[in-house]
Write a structure and sequence with these properties.
The complex is a heterodimer of chains A (406) and B (134). Chain A is built from 14 helices and 17 strands. Chain A has 406 residues and is of the alpha/beta class. Chain B is of the alpha+beta class and 134 residues long. Chain B is globular. Classes of the chains: A alpha/beta (406), B alpha+beta (134). The interface between A and B is medium-sized, with 20 and 21 residues.
Chain lengths: 406, 134
Amino acid sequence: MTFDVAAVRRQFPILSEIIDGRPVHYLDNGASAQTPLAVIDAVRAYETTSRANVLRGVHRLAERATELYENARADVAKFLGVEPMEIVFTGGCTAAINLVAYSYGQLLEPGDRILLSELEHHSNIVPWQLLRQRSGVELDMIPVTTDGQIDLGLLTKLVTPKTKLISLAHVSNVTGALLDVRKVVEAAKSVGARVMLDGAQRAPHGPIDLRALGIDFYVFAGHKAYGPNGVGVLWAKPELLEAMPPFHGGGSMIGRVTFAETTWAPPPRRFEAGTPPIGPAIGLGTACTWMAALDWTATHDHEMGLVQRVLDGLQKIDGTQILGPAGLQNRYPVVSFMLDGVHPHDVAQTLDAFGVAVRAGHHCAQPLMDRFDLDGTTRVSIAPYNDNGDIDALLTGVRHAANTLR
Amino acid sequence: MSDELYQARIVALAKSKTGAGKLAAPTKSARRDNPLCGDRVTIDVRVDDGRIAEIAHQVRGCLLCQASAAALAGAAVGRDAAGIAELRHDAERAIGRETGKANDPFDAFEPVANHKSRHECVLLPFEALTDALS
């Protein structure tokens, strides 16, 4: 198979929009990706032919809704190479990390240590700080190299027998750096620690074989992976889900309730209290199937070809600096840059005038900004539907900002 | 078109760097952060008999924030807290949060009115100065 970007683009209606006379050059996929017709159709089909609550109803609509919801769980599981009952639908990626911090956190003792890195999204820092306040665990941090990668050379020093969990970004949402998971798992195994990966920026770039990675927890967001907003995924090894107490209490997550005592449902329902995000989960299941149907060797080549075009183009503009790996090695299609003398928000605002959507600021990674003494960066994040026209519009806009704002 | 936002007067205000820096002996100082975008403004003032005698600012933020801090520094000397509140009304009128015509120099920010996500960039220096005076 080869990669036909035009054919992919046709599946995303928003890419044909003209806004204020300009086409949409959407390069803010790291914040929220666009969604294909297949997903829109799946959600619409649920809402128009099968809308009902799941699990408890005996009527036909409830049965249809439950079947669609559980099929979605199976689709997500297939995308990750795991079993459906190991998949927990959450309200998002942040919600999934909070779930682990709360529920797995209850299995930890005061003085146990959790290892994070300097480049983590706030979502993979703050829930652990809250756990530290609640339970007395300690947090450690792996510094970042000058090219924006987690410095795994320090792992042997930072991983100790007290380390119980290492929780890291699979791909950095700022630098695009890809984690060497093998090294992390090796270090974790040496002390019996668990490994969680924040897959928010990795999951949108093709199926993942979680068993082969040898990790314990994986989380990602639906809306960054071409699915709807309001749904995320937690995968955990079955023995961990089984051992973890619930996060939220309510309907669906119980075995039996009396005023004296409540017993818990088995996973994954134990962690899906209340009515789950049914439509969004169905959309996400479809998004995973949609992604899995792409030829990811060709798609990855296409995405990284665009990254190269960004890197080459920016290097020709005086005063640009890349925050992240210099080349294509060890990176995914996220590129952060600074333009000397122009604040990232002003770069992004100028790009908007060219129809180019990017994200600027601290990217919810303030410790990383502090590490490099930066106010922020301008971030270009690429999806399979992006093309050379998007990148050329980006570079034209950056040149304009360089010429007019400094 | 969005880049009409960066009109010559705003760019000139930012580049003027009026009041940029620190005071050697401030009476009061305050720092304000915008947690959404990470912009940070630090304001030093020397207050004499309830009125601003000297003002300086350090801005780690966008061009709009720099321009607003420069405009504010240029207009603040000799004013008390009520006088600064008057200037803020001017800025709020410029960005369309209050009705009426803004006065110079804050009328320079009228192009920001259509960019709601950037309103706080203009107002952050006022927040810091109000804190410093309180």
